[in-house]
Amino acid sequence: MYPDHTPQRAVEVHHPTPIPPPVVHPAPVVPVQPGTVPTVASVVLPDGRVVTGYAIDAVRPEPVTAKLAVSRVAVNVALGGVGFLAVCGGLLLLTSFIAALTAFIGQLIILAAVIFGGWIAVQVLGPSGHKGGTTVNIRRAVFKRNHFHG
């Protein structure tokens, strides 16, 4: 198994030590006397055997309180009221949105008028000096024999 030039090693074999199972001591049985002595009942089976034992009362669940009946008309009226309120709220929001949009468009129109009016005012009231070019006053022009005279 090992090559010739390696020394042999001693192999130790470890065997597991079994763990003993724990010792279980049964709990002492203490007889308990019931508060009242139950009645002993005997039952005769169909094959003739007799079984005797204590009768145990079945545990009865708490009585369930009756649910109040809700009429379909009341449910439909309530659902209709909720739907009506939802529609009214939606219409109120839509009306508010339309009013805000109308006011916004009006503000944009006023802003455009102010800007355009300012531009016109600068053009009219600005310096009137001529910066070159020819100015012709057509209303004072006189036409004679197909010639233009100024």
UniProtKB/TrEMBL annotation:
The keyword Membrane applies. The chain crosses the membrane at residues 73-94, 100-122. This is Integral membrane protein. Keywords: Membrane, Transmembrane, Transmembrane helix.
